[in-house]
């Protein structure tokens, strides 16, 4: 039974990452007619509606502590993470953001060690982490080995990685409540949109429904809402529930490689041998981090 749960967890993580790795393409196409906050609002608005239709049953009564965790997950995993990432992209290079965001598993491991009693950190996790980060750096720069640091943008990207780690910890705690994963994800989306509303009055936002008359816009926003949000947050939260926050977060290493492959197939972009080496190193890092070895855990 345990083996079946592990397989289901890994499969859920792989499905999530395969889709998340392609969202860059859809977002890039939508940014022609939409602002980042508009994409974010429509994406999770659609995701929330889909989850309500898919599983219309109300979540049973929760206490204040549980509601606070749902609110925290919505604030971190939906509102803050995507806002910080998008704003970071306006200050620094996309390659910088891609590399920095990929350090999220490191923060997940640290926070899990501090705040989760049943999460273990393996020594090989850190070895795999450093190998994967080198690979991710090669993928993102793709042969253009020019590093341009921007304190504001790079700091925002680091904060985004930290915020995602907090979301991962909260998701792990929420998974222990015994609620249905679709219901918990739906609750998280609700709070994420709730915290997003004040931002709509600060950043450029307009409904502009006529933009959805263009097939390319409706297709990509539905892909982000149905696939990358409704489906993927459920599968990701399922993976966290079955595998734990640390082991699931390691799959984030695969995102840059999938993005590059998708860019080649969809946008006909070129790839250098340096990026290919980066993808190999990323997969090696993932493999090493996932290997079972001696665990290091806090004394109980």
From TrEMBL:
Major localization class: membrane
Residues in EamA domain copies: 9-140, 152-288
Residues annotated as transmembrane: 7-27, 39-56, 68-91, 97-116, 123-143, 149-167, 188-205, 217-236, 248-265, 271-288
Subcellular location: Cell membrane
UniProt keywords, alphabetically: Cell membrane, Membrane, Transmembrane, Transmembrane helix
Source domain of life: Bacteria
GO CC terms of this entry: plasma membrane
Membrane topology, from the record: Multi-pass membrane protein
Name used for this protein in its record: EamA family transporter
Source organism phylogeny: Bacteria, Bacillati, Bacillota, Clostridia, Eubacteriales
């Amino acid at each position: 039974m345990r083996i079946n749960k592990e397989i289901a967890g890994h499969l859920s993580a792989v499905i999530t990452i395969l889709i998340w790795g392609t969202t860059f393409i859809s977002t890039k196409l939508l940014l022609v007619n939409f602002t980042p906050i508009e994409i974010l609002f429509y994406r999770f608005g659609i995701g929330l509606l889909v989850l309500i239709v898919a599983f219309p049953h109300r979540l049973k009564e929760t206490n204040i502590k549980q509601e606070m965790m749902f609110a925290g997950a919505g604030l971190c995993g939906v509102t803050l993470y995507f806002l910080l990432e998008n704003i970071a992209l306006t200050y620094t290079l996309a390659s910088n953001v891609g590399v920095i965001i990929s350090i999220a598993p490191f923060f997940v491991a640290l926070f899990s060690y501090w705040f989760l009693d049943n999460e273990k950190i393996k020594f090989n996790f850190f070895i795999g982490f450093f190998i994967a980060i080198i690979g991710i750096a090669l993928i993102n720069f793709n042969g253009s080995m020019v590093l341009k640091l921007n304190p504001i943008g790079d700091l925002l990207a680091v904060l985004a990685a930290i915020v995602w780690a907090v979301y991962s910890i909260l998701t792990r705690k929420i998974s222990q409540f015994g609620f249905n994963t679709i219901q918990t994800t739906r609750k998280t989306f609700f709070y994420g949109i709730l915290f997003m509303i004040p931002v709509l009055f600060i950043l450029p936002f307009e409904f502009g429904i006529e933009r959805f008359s263009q097939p390319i816009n409706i297709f990509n926003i539905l892909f982000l809402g149905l696939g990358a949000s409704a489906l993927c947050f459920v599968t990701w939260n399922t993976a966290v529930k079955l595998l734990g926050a640390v082991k699931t977060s390691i799959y984030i290493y695969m995102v840059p490689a999938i993005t590059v492959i998708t860019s080649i197939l969809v946008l006909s972009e070129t790839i250098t041998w340096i990026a290919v080496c980066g993808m190999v190193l990323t997969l090696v890092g993932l493999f090493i981090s996932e290997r079972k070895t001696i665990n290091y855990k806090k004394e109980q």
